[in-house]
Amino acid sequence: MNLHINGMTAVLGVVMLGLASLPAGAVTDEQKANLRSDCRSDFIAHCKGVSPGGVEAFECLAKNVDSLSTACQGAVKAVDPKAE
């Protein structure tokens, strides 16, 4: 169980690093924390085959926004209101 939780944390940590390539100040620490806490299982369920890291991981969530949990949808849309 701890290995599974640590693995998810590592994956999402790398996803958050990908957000660093967005314009400076575009993603707040609070938004990053919300993505980490609200999108763990959504990333694993909807972004299989997407390499964690880079903007690609966030874009996967944004592309699948309609299929994400309500909490994750909110977190993604808070970063990118145009996410569809």
Structure, described:
With 84 residues, the chain is an all-alpha fold. It has one domain. Helix content is 64%, strand content 0%. It is built from five helices and no strands. The protein has helices at 2-18, 29-38, 40-46, 54-63, 70-79. Helix 1 crosses helix 4 and helix 2 (29-38) packs antiparallel against helix 5 (70-79). The radius of gyration is 12 Å and the shape is globular. The model has no long low-confidence stretch (mean pLDDT 78).
Summarize the structure.
The chain has helices spanning 2-18, 29-38, 40-46, 54-63, 70-79. With 84 residues, the protein is mainly α.
Mind sketching the topology for me?
Layout: H1 2-18, H2 29-38, H3 40-46, H4 54-63, H5 70-79
Helix pairs in contact: 1-4, 2-5
Q: Which structural category do the helix and sheet elements fall into?
A: mainly alpha
Tally of DSSP helical segments: 5
Task: Name the poorly predicted regions.
Answer: none
Q: Write down the domain tally.
A: 1
Mean pLDDT: 78
* Sheet of most strands: none
- The tally of beta strands, per DSSP, is 0
Shape type:
globular
Helix content percent band: 55-70%
SSE pattern, N- to C-terminal: HHHHH
Distance between the termini: 33 Å
Taking Cα atoms only, what radius of gyration do you get, to the nearest Å?
A: 12 Å
Report strand %.
under 5%
